[in-house]
């Protein structure tokens, strides 16, 4: 991506083999053509009701589009070829706005579906669904499957990833409902589920167990934000069970310095876990949660270019090989974004063995 041997990251195929294409904003792409991929990012994060009634002083829609085009074009110049935008319902997802960015940038953008809540859903979901006053099927399942199979909000842009959240409150009843709906959508479509986890609360193992009990194979789960942890035993256990871990918050040094994040990746690479890690930032061009003025002061390296300019050189200096980086940035994302086979709706999974790691 940048410096020294970085061009090799995008020079070769992912070698995932043939399979279904990955949906992007510009249409389907062969997984082997995705190139270096950032699997956990955002472009615009907002809050529609607040944005409508109390616009943020730093938000200008037209300027935001121009800024995103500039940032993503620069990122392509550093060798990145695909970015997964994990802005789902609950984070102000606006695929039509993002499409205006995608049509002007040279890299691939992949949309996601899911619902971002760490505790409760809006009141609508309390009245709609099986056994609820209005009744009908669970709208979450309908939303997720439609986003994947038909497209999001009439745009025709299909989601290429599912996202769920557990944080400090754990698996609350509404979080369980979201996760169950995502598991059902995975079983119907084969699309990988990625998560927001809180390693300090050990939510990753609970996510793995919950989703697995509902038919999601561990190899189709990315336990996101695992890089916030330096607990190698917890990280090994997640990977040994079959999941990929997201070392995906580089630049969030207000949570953990990048040097310590790098040290964790290097320790796991030395043990042979390159095949079970992916790298990213969880960054955004604009986020109402942590707006640009705050990030400039408190997290100045929290942006799309941090991996290319700072983190990869640190990994190389620490002994990461070109093959390690290629696997984490090209091969693993391609494998995870390539849709898996849809399974029958209630496939038994008890006792299923995880996919062994290649030696």
UniProtKB/TrEMBL annotation:
Extent of Low complexity compositional bias: 1-14
Keywords: Hydrolase, Metal-binding
Family: Belongs to the metallo-dependent hydrolases superfamily. Phosphotriesterase family.
Source species, domain of life: Bacteria
Gene3D superfamilies with a match to the protein in the record: Metal-dependent hydrolases
Region (Disordered): 1-26
Database matches in InterPro entries: AryldialkylPase_Zn-BS (IPR017947), Metal_Hydrolase (IPR032466), Phosphotriesterase (IPR001559)
Name of the protein: Phosphotriesterase
Modified residues annotated as N6-carboxylysine in this record: 163
């Amino acid at each position: 991506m940048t410096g020294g041997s970085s061009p090799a990251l995008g020079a070769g195929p992912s070698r995932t083999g043939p399979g279904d294409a990955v949906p992007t904003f510009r249409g389907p792409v062969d997984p082997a053509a995705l190139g270096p991929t950032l699997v956990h990012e955002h472009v615009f994060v907002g809050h529609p009701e607040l944005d409508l009634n109390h616009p943020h002083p730093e938000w200008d829609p037209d300027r935001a589009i121009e800024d995103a085009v500039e940032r993503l074009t620069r990122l392509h110049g550093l060798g990145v070829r695909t970015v997964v935008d994990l802005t789902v319902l609950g984070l102000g997802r606006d695929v039509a706005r993002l499409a205006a960015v995608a049509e002007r940038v040279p890299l691939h953008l992949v949309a996601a579906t899911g619902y971002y809540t760490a505790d409760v859903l809006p009141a609508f979901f309390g009245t709609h669904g099986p056994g609820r006053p209005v009744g009908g099927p669970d709208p979450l399942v309908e939303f997720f499957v439609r986003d994947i199979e038909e497209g999001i909000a009439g745009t025709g842009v299909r989601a290429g990833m599912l996202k769920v959240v557990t944080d400090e409150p754990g698996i609350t009843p509404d979080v369980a409902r979201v996760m169950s709906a995502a598991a059902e959508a995975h079983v119907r479509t084969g699309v990988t589920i990625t998560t927001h986890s809180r390693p300090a609360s050990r939510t990753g193992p609970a996510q793995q167990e919950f989703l697995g009990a509902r038919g999601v194979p561990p190899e189709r789960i990315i336990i996101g934000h695992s890089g916030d942890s330096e607990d190698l035993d917890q990280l090994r256990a997640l990977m040994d069970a079959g999941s990929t871990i997201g070392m995906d918050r580089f630049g969030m040094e207000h949570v953990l310095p990048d040097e310590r994040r790098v040290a964790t990746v290097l320790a796991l690479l030395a043990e042979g876990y390159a095949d079970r890690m992916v790298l990213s930032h969880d960054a955004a061009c604009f986020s109402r949660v942590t707006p640009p003025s705050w990030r400039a002061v408190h997290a100045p390296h929290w942006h799309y270019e941090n991996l290319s300019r700072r983190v990869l050189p640190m990994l190389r200096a620490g002994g990461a090989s070109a093959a390690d980086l290629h696997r984490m940035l090209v091969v693993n994302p391609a494998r995870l974004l390539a849709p898996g086979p849809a399974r029958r709706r209630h496939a038994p999974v008890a006792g299923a063995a995880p996919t062994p790691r290649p030696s």
